[in-house]
Amino acid sequence: IGKQRHGPIGNVELSFEGEFTRFGNLVKTWQQGTGDGY
Fold first, then answer.
1. Beta bridge partners of 19
2. How far apart are CA 7 and CA 21, in angstroms?
């Protein structure tokens, strides 16, 4: 994760995969499933 000195700031929700020592996209429960893709 890097810092951009003159750019905007904000929060990003990530998941940590300890088995691989990496960060990934956070999958929320409402994003899971095989819905219609809307």
1. none
2. 27
Mention every residue, 6+ apart, whose C-beta is less than 8 A from residue 24: 14, 15, 16, 17
Q: How far apart are CA 15 and CA 27, in angstroms?
A: 8
25 strand-pairing partners? 14
Angle at 24 between CA 21 and CA 26, to 5 degrees: 130
10 is written with which tokens? 């904000």
- Model-level pTM? 0.42
Q: What are 5-37's pLDDT values in tens digits?
A: 887 778 888 899 999 999 988 887 765 555 565
